[in-house]
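Lab notebook, bench 4. We co-purified these components, and the gel suggests they stay together. Before we commit to crystallization screens, I want a quick structural picture of the whole thing.
Request: model the full complex, all chains together.
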Amino acid sequence: MRIGAIELKSKWILAPMAGVSEMPFRRLAFRYGAGLCPTELVSSEGLVRASARTLRYLRRDEEAERPFAVQIFGGNPDSMARAAVVAKEHGADIIDINMGCPVPKVFKSGAGCALMADPARAAEIVRRIREATGLPVTAKIRSGLDSKRINCVEVGLALQEAGCVAIALHPRTRAQGYSGRADWSLIRELKEALEIPVIGNGDVKTVADAHRMLEETGCDAVMIGRGALGNPWLFRQLQGGPPPTPEERHRVVLEHFEDHVAFREDPRAAVRTFRNHIGWYSRGLVGAANFRARAMELETVDEVRRALDEFFSTALPDPRFHGQSEDDGIDYRTAYG
Ligand SMILES: Cc1cc2nc3c(=O)[nH]c(=O)nc-3n(C[C@H](O)[C@H](O)[C@H](O)COP(=O)(O)O)c2cc1C
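Here is the predicted assembly.
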């Protein structure tokens, strides 16, 4: 699988997820075999202003994160090109454009999924970024705005014509948000229409799902979001490797927490934002529900360390768990793709 001239180590890709696919988690996904782990969406306007807060999203592990794909969002071709230059100066090897974000604030500014309604402007953004940076440009799109305006193939063709080197499709409309099922038949349609690689995305939770997506759609690579939460080992399993042992899970959860605290810099905030990860890592283990409730009360780094140690040093898989029907704890009003 190639993105322009860049050969990926595998065709399994971690989806960009705001507040989740930050450097500590991306590093784990790369370690276990992901071929690419783009950043979450980063504001082009913030990058152009060189806002300190926005630039923090570009922090990465230079050793582990190769290639480094930065996802940017915005509606203005000029700002997007300038933002891409800033991302390149901060190490980006690939620029990914967010064309899927359904959140009203982003949409109203003509960015994210709004670009699906304006293929000419979307293509112009690709062209301008290519010219300004010389980097390979990719895009992540949805099926369209709603069931009456499914136009991912039209948008895909316009982007390809503009020099986009790969397209990821999350085949839900903006109106669908995250409800219903992703319509994989659109991934197949897009693959059949384009010459550039197509990355399939949506509802891949297991190794079997990923292989089924490859078979059913013919896509070149598979992007996984929610299925990788609390389970970076999924990427190893996709390469034929084993699931984590309890000892390994214990060690890696602690490691992730320490990295998360260092990354967030504010320990109290880190404790709060790691709660979601605690929920995901404990999914499917005996006593997870009680542990999660307890984790919500923890306030300090030391308390979290102790609680993680206690739970994960003894936690065993729950034989009644089949990987479904549990609330994933995600606030979909703020899920950006
Ligand atoms: C919490 C959360 C945050 C997300 N943030 C982004 C984002 O920043 N950029 C983006 O393109 N997609 C974003 N998405 C969408 C995912 O990349 C992906 O397209 C979607 O979750 C479907 O894939 P999945 O079924 O494997 O999760 C987000 C999704 C979730 C759940």
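The radius of gyration is 19 Å. Worth comparing against the SEC data before the next meeting. The chain has two domains: 7-238, 246-312.
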